[in-house]
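Journal club prep — side note

Before the paper discussion, L.F. wants everyone to see what a predicted structure for a comparable chain looks like in token form. Sequence:
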Amino acid sequence: MANILITGCSSGIGLETAKLLKEKGYKVYATARKKEDVLMLQELDFIAYKLDITKEAEISEVLEKILKLDKTLDAVFNNAGFGQPGAVEDLSTEVLKEQFETNFFGTHEITIQTMRIFREQGYGKIIQHSSVLGIISLKFRGAYNASKYAIEGINDTLRQELLNTNIFISTINTGPVTSKFRENALKMFNKNINAKDSYFRNIYAKELKTRLENIKDDTPFNLPASSVARVVLKIMQSKTPKPRYYVTIATYLLGFAKRVLSTKQLDKLLNRI
């Protein structure tokens, strides 16, 4: 039975992926940052561990537990992450560092620790959850854009360094998907952005917060979280998974626009979204 470590399983994509893979016979090590979410996962009959990916020691501890149980690890799905909204000029350096600590540095730490396991056993799959915002950038998402662009750069490099090995890295570029992403992003906006003194205060009040507070799944091309779960399943079932997978029509359309439009044309298009 192949096994997989999944981060960020408290809800949404992580939880749906854990459920689907378990249903298909994979041994899932589901992790979450909060103790109450770990208990929830255990009640769903998962082998679940507390894992804050910004803490190197917790990553090492979880991997040690997995290897004690199974001796090997077949795959890791780096799913944990969050979005920090706000105009670039309203992002303090500390807030930007916080975004990178989870979305980039935490993901990188898990990647290099699992790479040691994969190198020793001679095989493994690294599944990195990026975004359409790792391909194109949208306004008021600068921190998140930058963190996902960083993931793209390091994935592209690692993929070259893994040529001619039995270790595969796959990047998933997800577009709008039903999850608690907007709900969590709103919390981070309220926590870290001084909206009332911002140049963009009127736009924040009329547009940005309205979008983040919208609980309906009415974003164009929106798909359920299970759409990403099915891609992870496909990767697990493949002997030689593809280096990149697009999820949602929006990702395909904007990825195509990035390739064919000039920078000025693309900026005009994206600014309307």
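L.F.'s comment for the group: Residues 3-180+221-270 form a domain with the Rossmann fold fold (CATH 3.40.50.720). Keep this in mind when we get to the figures.
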